[in-house]
Amino acid sequence: xxxxxxxxxxxxxxxxxxxxxxxxxxxxxxxxxxxxxxxxxxxxxxxxxxxxxxxxxxxxxxxxxxxxxxxxxxxxxxxxxxxxxxxxxxxxxxxxxxxxxxxxxxxxxxxxxxxxxxxxxxxxxxxxxxxxxxxxxxxxxxxxxxxxxxxxxxx
Amino acid sequence: xxxxxxxxxxxxxxxxxxxxxxxxxxxxxxxxxxxxxxxxxxxxxxxxxxxxxxxxxxxxxxxxxxxxxxxxxxxxxxxxxxxxxxxxxxxxxxxxxxxxxxxxxxxxxxxxxxxxxxxxxxxxxxxxxxxxxxxxxxxxxxxxxxxxxxxxxxxxxxxxxxxxxxxxxxxxxxxxxxxxxxxxxxxxxxxxxxxxxxxxxxxxxxxxxxxxxxxxxxxxxxxxxxxxxxxxxxxxxxxxxxxxxxxxxxxxxxxxxxxxxxxxxxxxxxxxxxxxxxxxxxxxxxxxxxxxxxxxxxxxxxxxxxxxxxxxxxxxxxxxxxxxxxxxxxxxxxxxxxxxxxxxxxxxxxxxxxxxxxxxxxxxxxxxxxxxxxxxxxxxxxxxxxxxxxxxxxxxxxxxxxxxxxxxxxxxxxxxxxxxxxxxxxxxxxxxxxxxxxxxxxxxxxxxxxxxxxxxxxxxxxxxxxxxxxxxxxxxxxxxxxxxxxxxxxxxxxxxxxxxxxxxxxxxxxxxxxxxxxxxxxxxxxxxxxxxxxxxxxxxxxxxxxxxxxxxxxxxxxxxxxxxxxxxxxxxxxxxxxxxxxxxxxxxxxxxxxxxxxxxxxxxxxxxxxxxxxxxxxxxxxxxxxxxxxxxxxxxxxxxxxxxxxxxxxxxxxxxxxxxxxxxxxxxxxxxxxxxxxxxxxxxxxxxxxxxxxxxxxxxxxxxxxxxxxxxxxxxxxxxxxxxxxxxx
Lengths: 155, 729
Fold this sequence. Notes:
The complex is a heterodimer of chains A (155) and B (729).
Chain A: E1 2-8, E2 11-17, H1 23-30, E3 49-52, E4 55-58, H2 64-67, E5 71-73, H3 85-92, H4 102-115, H5 121-128, H6 138-148
Parallel strand pairs in A: 1-5
Antiparallel strand pairs in A: 1-2, 3-4, 3-5
Helix pairs in contact in A: 3-4, 3-6, 5-6
Chain B: E1 5-11, E2 19-25, E3 36-39, E4 42-44, E5 50-54, H1 63-75, E6 82-86, H2 103-130, E7 137-140, E8 143-146, E9 152-154, H3 159-163, H4 193-198, E10 213-218, E11 226-231, H5 233-236, E12 241-247, E13 250-255, H6 258-267, E14 269-273, H7 282-292, E15 298-303, E16 315-323, E17 335-341, E18 344-349, H8 354-365, E19 372-376, H9 390-399, E20 406-409, H10 412-417, E21 425-433, E22 439-448, H11 459-462, H12 465-469, E23 484-491, H13 506-523, H14 528-535, H15 556-570, E24 580-589, E25 593-603, E26 614-624, H16 631-650, E27 655-656, E28 659-660, E29 678-683, H17 702-714, H18 725-728
Parallel strand pairs in B: 5-6, 10-20, 18-19, 22-23, 26-29
Antiparallel strand pairs in B: 1-2, 3-4, 4-5, 7-8, 8-9, 10-13, 11-14, 12-13, 15-23, 16-21, 17-18, 17-20, 21-22, 24-25, 25-26, 27-28
């Protein structure tokens, strides 16, 4: 057990834990931020995606020792009032079914938009195709990502 | 506080034989600050909030929203004024538990009666205050308004008066006719949406309690195996691990974090007894299933001369279809959180069956059921897996040995390898034509492993034709009219745990039946749509009483209508683009939901790892599910059913050496966004004024529609799932 400092949603947090503990469990079990979801533990499903700086990373693949000193944004910290462009687009398109996997997808699109404010629809699709949803929200997800990017949304 | 309790049991409105139990209460002694609780479903708070209890589990089907719409409609209350509370065992709300695509149908009467009853009491309260007849008043937007006068009072101002009003006779309540609906039939935003996009939605794994510990369980790798011995020393040395002990299904590891519990389990030294199934393999099981269809087994339906008519036919056609084991693979793995203390167990769980959990946990702990409370959280997907209670019983067993609450975590591997599964099946179909090439004989032999929800059927049930007919959805209730018809079921045992999976018995049977119908069209050079319409030409499908409760009949006219609509919207009569083909299929689910799909498909020029070997460009759906409560929600269920069914074409669960092999999403590969077709849904304005289900019906005929297109493109019939590149070569 060692002490690690990291920045989460703008706050400095000190965690005393095994340095091998994935950021996913640090967020959920040590810091009580349960908006970041477990789905596979292997980086396959994308449910645990968070922002590291402006980049999307899979929290199940980042050990605490590598997270120390870095800045993370989880779904809880994406906006103070739920009005981030992706959050709005997701509600406008009524994307969610069970909703469990959606935070990771929102953060992936947000990261893509921070890197490239004018992405193509294909780039959005490619990024979201690295995420899994068992309910089948994909058609709406496609539309919401385009809407968040300011692209034309075709039904 | 309820000072007067009545239990009023009524035969509900026309169309149902449903018994609705209302626990009606009114507090006559308390002052204006007391809430008005007209029945178990509704509670009017003095601050204007109206709390509505939902009996159903929210697992993505939007049930909280659609049930609230039913209540708001009769309450004459804006939808956003309803605050949703999850029903719990013991709170009086009937119908706790979610499955069988039945939420709309089973709540339609209950919720409307509960709401209409409350509305009438509020109207009577205002009328009494004003000294006018109730008929001189009406409810509107959360207020009672005097029709002629202009006086009005908010519901919140009427609570103490309303509580003193007699409870209306149920028979006198008149729910609104369809023409007067203002909420039902619209598509308001889902109530959980804002919480979902901000991380505030609470699923089972998000339960956090003071002092809560985290646990995982090591389970035997071989089906039916058991614990031989274990050495916990190395596990207990892992920082954060606090306890390690045997439970009925394996070895529990309790720690301060999920990660520590997982590390502890990795360090555990354990030996297992493999038991008698260590050689079980799904490949060999598939051969047994196929062999079991070589002759008729237990006959589940027989019309005319049945199987015997085949012998006299001029020509015959036969095909064998194979369907694999499959997992539910909800992205939230199964889990449960329990706290056992002072002779009680509190349970927080994303369950589809709070009553089943209460009963089984009570049994496991030797407690009376009322000593077990069950709080249903949001479910991160359900699909039938959470009709089981194995996870809650495990959590309770662990919690019983601890002074703190404990959250039982199943990893993805635990969830895929140790759940229960959709049964593998073989379906053999035989058709006989007369000398004029008319279809006169039809035989459908199903071989599979039946289940009775989460338990194994008894030997008596497995020999009972009526019981097996009840496990033959899509077989015995074929919509097609053939004079000589026989269906049968061959029970093939498997050590694999089998349980309800979205659409339960239907997917294998409908896949086989709808692909076979297409084969027959192809064989006789007919158009697959025209051929289906021809076979549906009469409206006389008498479904045997044992196949459908109440002897309900399916309506072939409604099925024809959705087939024709889907075909028209998909451009069936125009040739598709080069390299593409259209396929069509249909089904009737429990005589209630009528659905047809047309899929436009092409072969993938070269295979891509992790992707289907074909491309589905577009799916057109036409459906008639009776009254549609939330049209956008209905479309969402179609999208969900299409994606689910395509996943079912992509991968399967396999077993070797007695254990499941696909432990994560790199083995059990579900559909991805870039494989998802454009999906277009057309809702038929139905003659049926009652709502029916969509969660399961939308799954069944999609795979055969795709298969029928693929078989044209590949130049050969594809008769198995999943579909691999080799199948198409």
